[in-house]
Amino acid sequence: MKRIALLIILGGLFAAGCYYDVEEELYPSNCDTDIVTYSGVIAPIISTNCLVCHSTAANLGGVRLEGYNAIKIWVDNGRIAGAINHQSGFSPMPQNAPKLSSCNISKIEKWISDGAPNN
Ligand code: HEC
To answer: Best mutation site among 41, 47, 52, 53 for ligand 1, i.e. most ligand atoms within 8 A of its Cβ?
Structure first.
């Protein structure tokens, strides 16, 4: 009897784990886009995923994304949003790498829709 109870509990935990994984993938509800600042959220995402090619020194494709003033140019001309969403007519970014996570894309889009503040 004890053993069965244990199995049920373990089974429940396992099922909950699977359910959570699927849930997370379908609905990134744990993606916090409430407060998306340039310095706290956007700059680190860009630094991790883009600066290897788009630092001031690297400047691949003539695109510099290091620092607020540099990235703002590419926000204002609409190229960043198109590139990270792999929209047709844009070069898909990051180049030769998987798309950014949907959470990171949401954060960048939220920041842009907030007017891309330098905060
Ligand atoms: C491995 C190098 C590499 C990485 C990493 C990379 N890029 Fe690029 N990016 C390029 C090159 C090269 C070009 C210019 C050639 C082209 O447009 O395909 C470019 C072009 C762009 C453009 C102009 C695209 C257009 O259609 O006008 C934007 C905007 C851009 N990158 C943003 C990003 C962002 C944002 C990231 C990070 C999420 C990123 N890139 C990561 C190499 C890279």
So the answer is: 53
Q: Out of 11-20, 74-83, 91-100, pick the least confident.
A: 11-20
- CA–centroid distance, residue 95 to ligand 1 (Å): 6
pTM of the entire structure? 0.82
Q: Decide: 108 in ligand 1 pocket, CB within 6 A.
A: no
Question: Of the candidates 57, 61, 44, which has an alpha carbon nearest to the alpha carbon of residue 96?
Answer: 61
> What pLDDT digit, counting tens, does each position of 17-35 carry?
444 455 455 555 789 999 9
Q: Where are the domains of the chain?
A: 1-30, 34-113
Distance between start and end Cα atoms, the chain: 60
